[in-house]
Design a protein that fits this description.
- This protein is of the alpha+beta class.
- Helix content is about 20%, strand content about 30%.
- The protein contains three helices and six strands; from the N terminus they run ββββββααα.
- It is globular.
- The two termini are about 15 Å apart.
Length: about 110
């Protein structure tokens, strides 16, 4: 779940920050932060304007394609599934693993 599938076209070392995130049913936001740490790869996606949007974390395992030329990341989830994910809280994420587990539980439910 926390590794980018080899079939996506992602090139190690490419910073995906600023790329558009395309869900299965349309654009859901932009990558605000990207971590490529081994075994802990994820995207933090800003889902909209600062008043209405919020940030959610997407594990790299749901990435289906990366288009470097179009600066887009395609994921195998719908907009509603992504927007319904738990909110990403940077301070909480950085100091303990409980938030990462919360996201893992949320996304794993789609594979059960």
């Amino acid at each position: 779940m926390w590794s980018c599938p080899d079939t996506t076209g992602y090139v190690t070392g490419t910073d995906l920050t600023g790329f558009t995130v395309e869900a299965t049913d349309g654009s859901v936001g932009k990558v605000g932060k990207h971590s490529a740490d081994a075994g802990a790869c994820y995207l933090v996606v800003d889902t909209g304007p600062w008043i209405f949007g919020r940030e959610v974390l997407l594990p790299a395992g749901i990435i289906t394609a990366v288009d470097i030329e179009q600066r887009s990341v395609h994921v195998g989830r719908t907009k509603d599934e992504i927007e319904s994910a738990p909110e990403y809280v940077p301070d909480r994420h950085d100091r303990d693993d409980s938030q990462r587990m919360e996201f893992a539980d949320y996304y794993l439910a789609f594979f059960r």
